Each structure stands twice: as structure tokens, then as C-alpha cells.
């Protein structure tokens, strides 16, 4: 997904540790995987952000991916419906959020069709360089 959407190759070891961290500590979030005829078709990660302003959690949809051969077949819509169902069943969840690349108009139309609205915020970040066991920056 990172290669396809951002042209980035990820460090497999770091990626594996990061993925396992969700399973080791469910307070970090959870993954959902969609299958079509037993074939993995898509996935997403939900992480949690506490909002002191609203006294509840935003659920962030991250790492959204649908395999190319399964796109435009309702895979994301099904994943989103399951996240929405779970979020409405959880009393402290105040809403769903995600970020999308500015140029990904197709995804933006999909999110809007599900009732999501563009937020008035721009995202800023300050990424830290981390080093793997061999001292290589990642």
C-alpha cells in the first residue's frame, strides 16, 4: 500500500513490529480484513484518539487498502459499515476520521458517499528519524 500510494518501501522488520503491537495491546486499535470468496480483498486499521473537548474517542481509519482486482466491488463500503456498527455500539466513540491524499479524488468521492465530510483542518507533522538494529535510518 505504501509503495502504491506514496512510492515508499517500508522496512519489513519495523512494519512487522508495528503490526504486532496492535495485537499485543488492543488499546492501540484493531484491524479488519475483508474477504471475497476466501481471498483477502481489503483491510484497514482503526486507532483511537482521545478528545478532551468532547470527552470521547475519535476512531481513525488508517492503512485503508483494497486489492486492485477487488476495487469498485463494495469492499471498502463493507469494511466501513462494520467500523461504523462497532463505533455506534461503543458508548465513548464520538466519530470516525481518516486522512486521504489530496489528489485521490476517487477515494474522496467514496468517503463522501458514505456520509463523511471534509474537515477544515490541514495536517502538519514532525516525523522523527528512527534507527533499526543495524543503525540504518528508516
Task: Kindly describe this structure.
This protein has a four-stranded mixed sheet with strand order 1-2-3-4, covered by helices on one side. It is α+β, with helices and mostly antiparallel strands. Helix content is 30%, strand content 28%. A hairpin with a 2-residue loop joins strand 1 and strand 2 (39-51). It is built from four helices and four strands. The protein has a single domain (2-113), classed as Aminopeptidase. The two termini are 17 Å apart.
Reconstruct the topology from this structure.
Blueprint: H1 2-6, H2 12-24, E1 29-36, E2 39-51, E3 56-66, H3 75-89, E4 93-98, H4 105-113
Parallel strand pairs: 3-4
Antiparallel strand pairs: 1-2, 2-3
Q: Which descriptors apply to this entry?
A:
138 residues; alpha+beta; Aminopeptidase; 4 strands; 30% helix
Order of helix and strand elements from N to C terminus: HHEEEHEH
The beta-strand count equals: 4
Binned strand content: 25-35%
**Under the CATH scheme, which class?**
Alpha Beta
Q: Regions with pLDDT < 50 over 5+ consecutive residues?
A: none
**CATH-defined fold name:** Aminopeptidase
Could you name the CATH homologous superfamily?
Gcn5-related N-acetyltransferase (GNAT)
Q: How would you classify the helix and strand content by structural class? A: alpha+beta
Strand order of the largest sheet: 1-2-3-4
Largest sheet descriptor: 4 strands, mixed
Based on CA inertia axes, which overall geometry fits? globular
Mean pLDDT: 89
**What is Rg?**
16 Å
Span of the ends, CA to CA? 17 Å
Total discrete domains: 1
For the record, the CATH architecture stands as: 3-Layer(aba) Sandwich
Question: Tally the helices: what do you get?
Answer: 4
Please estimate the helix content: 25-40%
